[in-house]
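## Example record

The block below lists the input lines for one assembly entry, exactly as stored, with component labels intact.
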Amino acid sequence: MSAAGRTGAGWWMLILPAFLLLVVFYIAPIAQVLTISVTEPELGLGNYERLFTSSAVQRVIETTLRICLITTVLALLLGYGIAYAITLARPRAQGWWILAVLVPLWISVLVRAFAWVTLLRRQGLVNNTLLGAGVIDEPLPLVWNEFGIIVGMVHYMVPFAVLPMLASMREIDPRLLAAARGLGASRGEVFRRVFLPLSLPGVIAAGVLVFIFSLGFYITPAILGGGKTLMVAEWISLQILDLIRWGLGTMMATMLVAAILVTLLVFSRIVDLRRIFGAGA
Amino acid sequence: MDGIYSPGAASRSLAWATAFYLVLPILIVVPVALTDQRYLSLPQDGISFRHFATVLSSPEWLGSIWQSFTIAVAATILSVTAGTLCAIGCWRISRRATELVRVMMLLPLIIPSIVYAIGLYRYFGPLGLLDRFLGVVIAHGVTGIPYVVITVSTALAAFDPRLEQAARGMGASLSQTLRWVILPRIAPGIFSGAIFAFIHSWDELVMVLFIASRDVFTLPRRIWDGINENLDPAMAAVAVLLILFTLLLLLADRALRRRNEG
Amino acid sequence: MSAAAGHALGLRGLTKRYGDFIAVNDVSLEIGQGEFVTLLGPSGSGKTTILMAIAGFVAPSEGAVLLDGRDITPLPPEKRNFGMVFQGYALFPHMTVAENVAFPLRVRGMSKADRDAKVRAALDLVQLAQFAGRLPKQLSGGQQQRVALARALVFDPSLLLLDEPLSALDKKLRAELQEELKALHRRVGRTFINVTHDQEEALSMSDRIAILNHGRLVQAGAPGELYERPRTRFVADFLGKSNFLEGTVRQPAPGGFMLEAGASRLAVAHGQGAALPPGTRSLLSLRPEKIALLAEGETAENQVEGRILSWSYLGAGFALRIATPDLGELRAVLPAWKSPVAPAEDLPVRLGWSADAAVPVEEDAA
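Predicted structure tokens for the full assembly:
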């Protein structure tokens, strides 16, 4: 029963504070970023020309895309395994598995990056252990490079990959799997022909989520990349804070937002975005 | 799905490996924080709490913790108030326009904080909000709204709209309906949203890097400097304290939800 | 619960459109003081929309709602002072029974002492005083329904609106609560407006029934009147079951005519003044229970030969499907003791009914 016409102004007033806050303190600053990208240092698309002319700009984009794709694939793979285990686990065990996914999700990204540095640096626990055991003769370069970034990012992204996949796996009727086995399919066949296709919407949603989160990721790459491997977010920060090149920084920020929105737009045709962002979308 | 169909050995070991990968690196900071050495390492001759003592007696660390806490509380109040009212309004009106408003409320989750941070850096300058308590509260409060909108919308989805009609039909005004009927029913959702908004502000670093410098020096900011400048066991102690604090909040959330479902 | 006189409600040309869809189409209806009126129709007939418009939850596209002659169309629901029992009851799950019933008083700023007295009286009225401290989920469906009634009546509303009040209950309980609701109506003397899709409920409880179809008011009247004198095919079909006989009007006279259907000629005494022009097509509604099986030598004003196609035993009687040469298939329901023969398939029978048993009805506009 729609009560159109009876929904007085009162209800709209409830929306107003959040709407104003968002417009004045969120949309406006971001709109300003987009504006600066075409007005500084001078009016025009000069900053965007750099996309085609500057090899430094191209290198950053290339690095970012490469790291994001690798991260997405690995996070999906690991996330799928854990979501699959959760779905098939007994209710009591499910609680523990979910805890193993959710607790890392809410622990500060700084703490996690710090933990990885502790583990992976030259005199870190991994290298020391391996040296002590005589497996290696000199420390492995595990961090402050692309490897370190990917280890940290995948670690950050796995929980985000698990949640949408888990949601779609839980919609699968378990009797279908039993039925398939009853009809003579092997365990592998049941997975390939029944479970995997049915869970695919969740996999796509998870992939989109992880990819767009990875694109603009700042803290983990900055700490674990050690300033040598630059991804766009850190590069933007460098342009603004250290080089004071607002035009270039905002241009890259605009491209970042555009890339994310285009990704969402393309995939919204394939999967329901609600899958990605929960019930609120 | 218990019992009907169980996973094979390969997928089981992948899941276990992933779980270890997710949890162990975080746990490693605990022994490191308890080391008796002066540098980052595992305890050698025994455990020691002196790095915790260092942190808890340092005015810098305590100052940052307090600052982060007050900012997070203020930002949470902002997010919860705006987000809850907005979610209720959108739920009740439920038109195309409100669907758009809801999508708009999710923008802070979608757009990377680096983009917002550089925007704020320019935007706050003329407003005199750079390096101010209020500036950080606004930034964190606005970006915390999506968490509240999502949890409250989820709670409202389970709320029978006829209860609201019933209240109005019996003569309750909008504010009476809100206070006596809607809010008590969705309180668990609001509380979850508050916890997530709090954690969001408490952990937030990217914006702070741009809009705060000396007067506002939050805990994440101090940790960031610590990681980049001097990696010492005190950092591990801070990390352990943070982990404990987060776990405490999540347990509170869980307990409250259990109580409401039971 | 004073026996204050009820209020009169009027609907004037009420229309509600949702885009191109017309949910309610030009409905006018007068509901008198203290009357128990039921809006009856299939789902999608617009009955609930009308109730919601009366309650103020739906703003009409056109037309007006009048209370004692005063236009209340622009008033929001909380200003109308109508009691309402919602489908599924809409009891507040976080409040006890007493708190639920006290809610309308609380929003009116009544003092706690006055509130308590009124709540007790209202709970007594529905015999639930001992459940005051329980939560709704601890009550049975029938008890919840009665809490909803107490809550809707406690603030002396001008009208009581009931939206499918019994639909969530099982059949037996439903019959019981129909009685109770009727008794309650008599006791409180208020105007009740009920919405249902259940024709039995409508027939047993209401002073008057308004039948709706596709958003239009098809016919309104006392239950007996509607059942005996349906105006259209839809009313005859929806309220009870009916056979429909089609034929041509012959020998029209005031109050009756002969209907020619194939080789049969049927006497019709409709008792209405104007004569139908001869040669027009006419449709008759004939209730199955008005058809008798004629014994050897027995006669009736109308007699038709036929064969039993199938039959079923209902306990109290038989339901028969009978094939006739001119009137097609007829359904008859007759008490077992009145049947002159034991029914059997293919058995030839003679059917009979009186001239005033069949009623001319109109075809419904599409």
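The interface with chain B takes residues 55-57, 76-84, 86-88, 90, 92-94, 103-104, 106-108, 151-152, 155 of chain C (CB under 8 Å). Chain C has a mean pLDDT of 89.
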